[in-house]
Amino acid sequence: MKLKKGGFMRNLKLLLPIAMAFTLVGCNKQSEKIVIPDIEESGTVVILATGGTIAGSGEEGKETGYKPGSISVESLIASVPGIEEVAPLQAIQVCNINSDDITSEIWITLAKTINELAPNPDVAGFVITHGTDTMEETAYFLNLAVSTKKPVVITGSMRPSTSLSADGPMNLYQSVVVAASEEAIGKGVLGVFSDSIYSARSMQKVSSFDVTAISAGPMGALGFVRNNEVFFYEASTKRHTETSEFTIAPTDTMTSLPDVPIIYFNADADPSIIDWAINHEAKGLVIAGAGAGEFSEKFINSLNGITNIPIVISSRIDSGVITQDSVLVKHAVAANDLPPHKASILLRMAIAKTKDLTQEKLIEIYKTY
Ligand code: GLU
């Protein structure tokens, strides 16, 4: 992998004008635009900061009771010794929020910004800093919406910047190493967390406190990072980034994604929640069924009555595949192995981007992405 030498003062020089040029996009100020910076230094890694625990601050030394999205991207970078030796950096503060407040408007801003900057020959790759709660959703959305072979890496932390042994600096350092590496080219959007590299499609948060809270279930990691070296062993076989049909170009007029609620099935669940979603103009539904995407006769009867919007069947359990022949509602579509929250993102993208929403086309989409 290619390492770029340079001093931290040089990075500061780069960062200060950007701090002035960029308007902070808070969750209530989505109309404000991101200004795309001029990038002229070869091998630059662009850091797009969105907030989360990695930018959290609270009582010195404590792991809990902090406020996510409190410190700026400049402070975040300044807290990582040696990061300036890895690659020249450009920082963009996209927003600074708890990732539970992420919206499809912010996703689209991220995708358009990356798609605008990616063709610049001086850009090596991208790192997005993010809260871990919804990191896997942003990663999967970007895997569908960005069109580049250049590495796009998402990271975060489980401990705020003010805690003892904060894990953010190491995760950010390793993410820049991966984003600057030639090995990560063409691998789709990647999650880097606690020494491991995951595919956007398989990564998931599996613990509420462990510093190894990001995992990839039965699919496992794609590789690892040790110091400044990247080791890949696997790659995703699914369509993503450059081969995706769901690219959101910088000039795209789309500003948000259509609404696709997830309906969680549990024993004795009242199916009137399905009617509620329909009455609130859901453009599609994802059912988080039990086991292999199963639910009660009452749910089957309700869902059989809905033929004007697509229905996708996923499962509330952690692993396994839902096959089309096991789907209980014959006009519905199996989510394959996507969990409900990722199945919903794919359906939102399909509704937004595809004219052809036949069951046949959607079955193909869920097998492909
Ligand atoms: N809920 C916060 C967030 O996702 C904290 C979780 C985290 O970042 O680890 O931004």
Jot down its keywords.
369 residues; alpha/beta; binds glutamic acid; single chain; disordered N terminus; 9 helices; eight-stranded mixed beta sheet; 14 strands; four-stranded parallel beta sheet
Q: What is the number of E strands?
A: 14
Please report which band the strand proportion falls in: under 5%, 5-15%, 15-25%, 25-35%, 35-45% or over 45%.
15-25%
Sheet/helix structural class? alpha/beta
| Strand order in the largest sheet | 2-1-3-4-5-6-9-10
Annotation field: number of helices: 9
Order of helices and strands: HEHEHEHEHEEEEEEEHEHEEHH
| Overall morphology | globular
Q: Bound small molecules, which ones?
A: glutamic acid
The percent range for helix content is 25-40%
Please summarize the sheet with the most strands: 8 strands, mixed
Structural Rg: 21 Å
Distance between the termini: 29 Å
Q: Show unreliable segments.
A: 1-31
What's the mean pLDDT score?
A: 91
